[in-house]
Amino acid sequence: MKTLQKFASVHANVHNHFNQEHHLVDRQTFKQRRSAALAEWQGLMA
């Protein structure tokens, strides 16, 4: 599980860096999606 968490963390940073469509999503939608992703991750870790 520790390796998976490390991979997911690195993958998220790389994906966010190269995501070309980020500018098409408004800030509120982006924050909602990140919150949902974090909640899902925390659910998997529980």
How would you describe this structure to a colleague?
This protein has 46 residues and is mainly α. The chain is built from two helices and no strands. The radius of gyration is 12 Å and the shape is flat. The mean pLDDT is 82.
Number of helices: 2
Strand content: under 5%
Amount of helix: over 70%
Order of helices and strands: HH
Class by SSE composition = mainly alpha
Distance between the termini: 11 Å
Measured on Cα atoms, how large is the radius of gyration? 12 Å
Q: What is the average per-residue confidence, as pLDDT, rounded to a whole number? A: 82
Q: How many strands, which pairing sense, and closed or not: the largest β-sheet? A: none
Low-confidence region ranges: none
Number of beta strands: 0
Overall shape: it is flat
Protein name: Transposase
Topology:
Blueprint: H1 2-18, H2 27-45
Summary of the model, kept short:
The protein is mainly alpha-helical. The protein has helices spanning 2-18, 27-45. The protein contains two helices and no strands.
Keywords:
2 helices; Transposase; 46 residues; flat; single chain
